[in-house]
Amino acid sequence: MRRWLIVSISALALVACKKNEAPASPAAGGASAGSGGALAAAPAARPTLLRDAVAFAQVPAQAPMLAVARSPQGLMEALGYAKARAAIGEPWSKLAAEATRELGFDATDPLQIAKTFGLDAAHPVGLVLLSLSDLRVGFFAKVADVKAFEAGLQLLIAHGPGQLPKATEGDATTWIDPRGEVAFVLRGDQAWMILQDRRRVAGLHAEVRRLLDGKAGTLADQADFKQAAEDLQAGGDLAGYLNMSAVVAAAVAEITGSARVQRLRDEVAHLEATGEDPEALTFARERLQRREGDSLSRAAQSAAITMAIQSFAGGLSAVRGGVDLRDGAVDLELGLRASETSLPQRMLGKAQGAGWQALGASEAPVYAATAHVDLKGIDGLVRQIATLAGGSRDIQRFEEEVRRETGLDWQQDILAVLDGRAEFVMRSTHPKALKAVRDFEGFFKGGLALGVQDEAKARSALERLLARAPKPEWARADAQGRYTLPLDPQFTLTLEIKDGWLRASNEGPVTKTGLATLTGALAEVLGPDLSSRHLVDWPQIADLALRRDEAWRAEWRNNDLDGANTAGEERHRQASSAIARRIFALFGPVAGGLSLKDGQLVLRVRQATQGPAPDMVARLAQAAVELEAEDRRYWREYTETEVKKDESDKVEDGKGDPAAPTPVEDLEKMDDVEEAKAAPVDPPKMAAEPVEKQ
Fold first, then answer.
1. Across the strands, what pairs with 582?
2. Is there a smaller number of Cβ atoms within 10 Å at the N or the C end of the chain?
């Protein structure tokens, strides 16, 4: 299986290849990702790969998932293959040498793969999930030279265990592993490699037959797929499709046991067709009979499970997705169509307009988000789930607990008051001044705002809630109607109900200037038709995390009593932090938005990057190599220090010889010996007593 794992790695290398195209200039007024980390305005949209039906013309109609990538030829320029390989250096060279030794060619080089198998390096390649129950996947590519493909396959077979019998069926040629792990199919100019997790010869043969049959149609013929391809706006570099109805059906089949029954039926049919193993056929028939009996006895339970799954996910159609690489950003889009009865439609509220309506920040926030959910829809959904699961009493206990702890009625004082809108903004206060660990406590500022339907009812509910507070003064509003709650010396919470919002903030009045600095160039991602929007400033978060870690380490060093390896620990910390800062410096803010409109649920995300993808990949690879080398150096130094300490202790106790320290490389062997000594010993087996002759 190890060799086929390397084969699959080579196939994934092909699938990962994406041909990058030169992006158009950013729109006027958009900030450049290379300056200040703001997100650049996107260039004009490119055709998505899902619309190139020729690339996946043979994909079976029932395939649950498809992923298509740009041609192998585009890998060098899109992901900086040469730069990344040079940056990784020796580890990559070792992997390439092992692949060449195991397979006869360098499976880490997409162009070498294409050349060895005669593939069209300028044509899209893809990955298909063919079966969820068997984790069966297929890799496909276009063949430019059939003779080269067969020669490459023979080279691969020669380096693998056993043989792959060759067979011809119509216009196709097949090579199927007798153990049921892998199969190759060449049909016309399309080549397939099929791998599966389980050794099921019957399942592999059945999959090849479905691939060759074509009577059930192909994925490109399906209405849901055509609609998904039309709806997808991103996906010029990588595109994907998920058949939700197939996924739901597979989930139901696995839960109810019908999938296991079908696998046994396939096995029986295969054994009957081959007639090679009568004993195995008898055993398979017996197992099938038992499984079918179990399925009949669970029919009522299976029907209830099916109804529950269909009621929550049955209204979801195909999911589409796409990725575009930009010179300064990576764009991601996920979308699906949802019926009125589907889970998203029952949970999400309608679009609430552009911008933050209730909150802002005086400085650029670390994180900011808005959301609009259907509270009554969610409440009804939870009650339905609880009823199906027999937990209706749990809902009643929850409402009683809310009334006892807060004095509020869940239905009348909460669901009837809140309208489902929410905003959250969090920023850091002068992060560069934070040096000690205690400085990081309570340094976040920001606020939370909840939309209210009736301000009078909301104010009444808030007053009743605060009346139960431990300090009576918390329940008294000031002249502006604000409530002040000094929770601790560093955290004072201000509450107010105004303009249809219940605001809670620990920085007093808020402005939107800080949000404007992040959202100025994000109108394309954070548009007006959104049920939620999110902003995450990775540079700030990374800087805060690293400096807090440095502050903690400084305090640890000051209080450390066992200082034998403190100097090495400090060098390791400084070196690792420096490399981590270089990694984090490659990324800017990320913005995302979720929209639900006219039955379309769409998620769009844009991650800012400090430069084009080839440079990013090479710099990330270099940093990763340096980080791994630094870890090896530190642990080698740490181990040597510990060995010297142990030897010193032995000398002091008069039990050791200072002239003969234990080599570091022998420590693992010593540990193995000690573990073997400590392992429990099985009692000796008793000899069987002789049988007395009658």
1. none
2. C
